[in-house]
Amino acid sequence: MRAQFVLSEIGVGLRRNLTMTFAVVVSVALSLALFGGSLLMSDQVNQMKGYWYDKVNVSIFFCNKSDATSDSNCAKGAVTAEQKKQILDDLNKMTTVVEKVTPETQDEAYKHYKEQFGDSPLASSLTPDQMQESYRIKLKKPEQYKIIASAFNGRDGVQSVQDQKNILDNLFGLLNGMNWAARAVMAMMLVVALMLIVNTVRVSAFSRRRETGIMRLVGASGFYIQAPFIMEAAVAGLIGGTVACGFLLIGRYFLIDHGLDLSHKLNLINFIGWDAVLTKLPLILATSLLMPALAAFFALRKYLKV
């Protein structure tokens, strides 16, 4: 009988404050969708880091004939065969740092450049002899770049030592910045949702103050009086959490698998799988249930003084 009364009161409360209940559902749905999206964004960035940092190379670029007049690092002229051999021997001795060394000739560098930038106006004016020979070095740990840079920068025949990780760090820094911006918006939306929940519960309690007063007079416990209001907020929050889960599932399906089909259009990016999305859904549902319930509980303690 008590359970039936509580459930009936929940239905009455939700219908009586339908507009505010709808506002709570929408604000909870949007804030938790942003919350889940920020968690997935973090997973995506971490997965991309693991994927790309494992593939980055350090490149030692050698001086060519044209660099001798235009680059101060190549003032002593183009690299010689002896200099390249000495550098390769030194790299092969660095077994604790270097995993693999891949030489790239001028013709190979020209071919790779044409493959990547063949449509640019500059590509048509370049010739193979203007390209630089290089050693592409795969490190055992990407953060050991400085060891290579300090060992070979400034050597005769070496034009520069470049680390691809620096380029990726800028990209991941941008992605992390966007993720923190999403979290800031999510935090503001959560505050708005909590304020709406508190106001909705107070309006509902005020509209039923006569019933709650009678319940106090007949000896009803504080929790028994609060339970319908708390469960109203929890149900509204749970509906919002379910909508947020739907947003994440639809977003993953539309953005990556179908619709925009980014998994095929951006096949160089290793996107997160469905398992990453599904593991976030229980957390979102639990948050959508507990957050409104706790907000209503603390609001009612002060408002009803029970």
UniProtKB/TrEMBL annotation:
The FtsX extracellular domain, residue ranges:
56-161
Domain ABC3 transporter permease C-terminal, by residue range, is: 185-302
Gene Ontology terms: biological process: cell division
What keywords were assigned to this record? Answer: Cell cycle, Cell division, Cell membrane, Membrane, Transmembrane, Transmembrane helix
Q: Which residues cross the membrane?
A: 21-41, 180-201, 237-256, 277-300
Record keywords: Cell cycle included? yes
* Subcellular location per the Swiss-Prot or TrEMBL entry: Cell membrane
Query: Which Pfam family, any one of them, does this sequence belong to?
Result: FtsX_ECD
Would I find Transmembrane among this entry's keywords? yes
Per the record, membrane topology reads: Multi-pass membrane protein
The GO cellular component terms are:
plasma membrane
Q: At the top level of its lineage, which domain of life is listed?
A: Bacteria
Q: Say what the protein does.
A: Part of the ABC transporter FtsEX involved in cellular division.
Q: What is its quaternary makeup?
A: Forms a membrane-associated complex with FtsE.
Q: Give the UniProt family note.
A: Belongs to the ABC-4 integral membrane protein family. FtsX subfamily.
- Name of protein: Cell division protein FtsX
